[in-house]
Structures are given as C-alpha cells and as structure tokens.
C-alpha cells in the first residue's frame, strides 16, 4: 500500500500556485474559445420528448421543469464560473459550477443524446477541493487583509484528488474502448472506423477538413490498423494512470487522437484539451516575470483589464440567459467577434492549429529536461 501510494499518488503532486495558474488558464480558455452551455432553452414545452436515462437525476422528475427553473440554473452556472475566475469563494463556486452543469446536462440528455464534454465541467469540482483558489484570487487578498486562517488542502489530500481526476480520465477512455471491443471492433472482417466515417459523412453531412480524403481510402489493412490502434489506446489508458509520467504520454497520444477525430469525423476535442493541460510538468516551465517577480504596477493593470473584460462578458451572458431562450450556449469572445463580423466561428480551427505545436513543444521540453536530469 505504501509503495502504491508513493508510486501513484505522489507522482501527481502539483503545487497550489501552479493549480492557481491553471485555474486562470482554464477560465481564459472557456472565455476565449468555448463559452458556456445554456440550459434556458429547455422548458416544459418539450415534455413529449422527456425520456431521461435510468441513472439520471432527471429521472427523479416526471417532466421538464418550467423555463424559469432553467434560466435560474443558467444564471447560477454563469456567476459561479466568473467567481472561479476571480477567485471568490473559489472552493464553493467550483462545486456549485460543476453541480449546476451536471443538473442541467441531465435534462439535456433526457432527449436521448449524450455528449462527452463532461470532463471540462467536472474538473473544477476536483481542483476546487484541491485548493486552486489559494493564489491569484480575491480569496487570497481577503486572507491577507483579514489575517484569517488558510483553507487549503493538505499535500496528501491534494495529490489524491488530482490522481482521482486522472483515474476518471483513464476510466472514461477505458469504458469507451470496452464498449468498442464488445461491439466487435476486434473482428478482422469488421471495419468499424470506416463504418463510423461513412455514417458521419453521409448521415450527418460532416464533410469538412480531411473527411473527403479518408472517405476515398479503400484498404482493409489501413482500416483494421485504425481499429486496433483505437482499441489498444483506449483500453490501455486506464493502466497508464499508475504514474504521472506514463499518463502524460497517453495524454499526448490523446491530443493526436482527437486531432484525427476532428479531421476525419469533424468532432471537436476542445473540452478535453484544457483538462489534459493540468498534468504537464509545471515546474519545468519558465513563467513571465509578472508571475515570478510581480511588478505591482504591471500586475495591477493586468488584473484591472482582465476583470473589466470578464465583467463585460458576465453581463453579456446573463443578459442572454434572461432574454434569449433559443440558444444552446453562451458564446466565447471569438464567437461574439465572428458574429459581429458576420463570419463563421473559428474557435475550433484555432484550437486545432494551436494544439499540434503546443503538443510538440511540451514533449520536446519534457525530453530535453529529462536528459539533463539524468546526466
């Protein structure tokens, strides 16, 4: 047990300051690229379609609640998100943000379709408990001015919480792989990836990026190789959780995997990319001078600008929550800009373009630093 604890849990140790930096990056990513989901398009007008899964909070209800309930849920979700960004009652804001998303998404899934973006929204629950609001937050300023006691997680509890999040990521891939194996992906005469490509291409008209290129490939060995690689990767993901270094390489492979899914099936991976970022070696990066050696004047200006921009977006999203009831999300800054310019939203394309060089940079730095430490 002691060996397992040393090998598994301690390898996921991340300093509280790095968790705080990650909190800022996480929130900026949502603000700039993805936006937040909206639930206020739901109402009891859709009761005819109400068919929640058996293992669902929505199954406790006989029908959809009225629209006021979902508007209230959306507003609370939005406010709790910005409280996370600003670091106001961060632990409780993180819990509320995740819980409101889970409750709202349970009703969204009551139509029978389930998406896979939950990792993005359950991450605050774990990291809120791990203490990602300790630094760069109003909570920290309040503790300094009032000299109150710190409410931070111990190192053991913090590393345990992060390792459980890693376990959930590994388990989500593992279950996806097991379902594929049970569905016959391992059979030599089955071309499962090719079947799904045809389904997305012709049924859902997902024909962008490299879909046209892959649809023309008629080589059984190529398609079976993709089937077996997918099975091995997804099922093996759970085993990689035993140590952070192994897990990181599987996460790197996951970024490449998601890029291929985007290019082939036109399914975005944005929700997962920012979650994977948590597990890089934060100690091996050099941070801007305003983080390592903060200049009071520069720091103050950055905080004011970030606060004003995020406050403007908060008002924009709450306005939409209260007045617009036919939208499934609250747009990111890029989405709003593209809408004002009457251009298509390019968030997904930008994420894809940024993911490859970022992945290569992280792996290169990791390799170089590992070589140096062994010499």
From TrEMBL:
Protein name per Swiss-Prot or TrEMBL: HTTM-like domain-containing protein
InterPro entries for this protein: HTTM-like (IPR011020)
SMART domains, alphabetized: HTTM
Entry keyword set: Membrane, Transmembrane, Transmembrane helix
Topological category with respect to the lipid bilayer: Multi-pass membrane protein
Organism: Paraflavisolibacter caeni
Span of domain HTTM-like: 11-281
UniProt subcellular location: Endomembrane system
Highest taxon, organism lineage: Bacteria
Transmembrane segments: 20-42, 69-88, 95-112, 118-138, 159-179, 249-279, 300-322, 346-365
Cellular component, GO, one term: endomembrane system
Primary location: membrane
């Amino acid at each position: 047990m002691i060996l397992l604890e040393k090998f598994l849990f301690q390898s996921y140790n991340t300093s509280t300051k790095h968790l705080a930096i990650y909190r800022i990056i996480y929130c900026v990513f949502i603000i700039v690229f993805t936006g937040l989901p909206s639930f206020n398009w739901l109402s009891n007008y859709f009761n005819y379609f109400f068919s929640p899964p058996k293992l669902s909070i929505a199954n406790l209800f006989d029908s959809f609640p009225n629209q006021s309930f979902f508007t209230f849920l959306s507003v609370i979700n939005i406010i709790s998100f910005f409280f996370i960004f600003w670091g106001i009652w961060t632990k409780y804001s993180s819990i509320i943000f995740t819980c409101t998303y889970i409750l709202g998404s349970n009703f969204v899934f009551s139509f029978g379709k389930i998406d896979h973006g939950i990792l993005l929204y359950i991450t605050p629950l774990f990291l809120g408990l791990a203490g990602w609001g300790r630094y760069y937050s109003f909570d920290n300023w309040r503790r300094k001015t009032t000299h109150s006691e710190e409410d931070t997680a111990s190192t053991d509890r913090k590393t345990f919480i992060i390792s459980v999040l890693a376990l959930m990521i590994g388990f989500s891939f593992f279950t996806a792989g097991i379902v594929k194996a049970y569905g016959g992906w391992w059979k030599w005469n089955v071309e499962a990836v090719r079947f799904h490509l045809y389904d997305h291409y012709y049924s859902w008209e997902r024909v962008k990026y490299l879909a046209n290129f892959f649809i023309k490939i008629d080589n059984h060995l190529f398609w079976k190789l993709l089937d077996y690689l997918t099975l091995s990767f997804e099922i093996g993901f759970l085993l990689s959780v035993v140590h952070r270094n192994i897990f990181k390489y599987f996460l790197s492979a996951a970024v490449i995997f998601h890029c291929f899914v985007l290019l082939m099936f036109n399914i975005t991976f944005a929700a997962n990319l920012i979650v994977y970022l948590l597990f890089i070696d934060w100690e091996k990066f050099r941070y801007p001078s305003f983080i390592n050696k903060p200049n009071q004047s520069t720091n103050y200006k950055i905080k004011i600008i970030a606060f004003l921009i995020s406050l403007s977006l908060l008002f924009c999203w709450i306005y939409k929550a209260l007045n617009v009831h036919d939208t499934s999300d609250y747009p990111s800054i890029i989405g709003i800009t593209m809408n004002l310019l009457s251009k298509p939203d390019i968030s997904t394309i930008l994420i894809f373009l940024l993911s490859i060089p970022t992945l290569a940079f992280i792996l290169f730095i990791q390799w170089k630093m590992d070589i140096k430490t062994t010499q």
